[in-house]
Amino acid sequence: MTSVVTLGRGPLLLAGSGPELGEHRRRWGPLARFSATELVARCRALDLRGRGGAGFPLADKLGAVARGRGRPVVVVNLSEGEPASHKDVTLARTSPHLLLDGAVATARAVGARQVHLVTGPQGVAELEQAVGQREERLRFTFHRAADLFVAGQSAAVLELVAGRPNLPVTTWQPSAHSGLRGRPTLLSNAETFAVAGVLATAGPEAVLRHGTPLEPGTTLLSLDGDGPPATRQVVEVAHGTRWGAVLPPSRLDAPVLLGGYHGTWAPAGALHDLPVSRRALAGAGLTLGAGVVLPSDGRCAVRRTAELLDYLASQSARRSGPCLNGLPALASAFREVVDGRPRLDEVRRLAGRVDGRGACAHPDGTARLVRSLLVACPDAVDGHVEGRCCR
Amino acid sequence: MRTLKVDWPACRARGLCFEVLPEVVRLDDWGYPVVEGPVTDDLLGSAREAVRMCPQLALRLVKG
Ligand code: SF4
Ligand code: SF4
Question: Is the ipTM of this complex over 0.95?
Answer without folding.
Answer: no
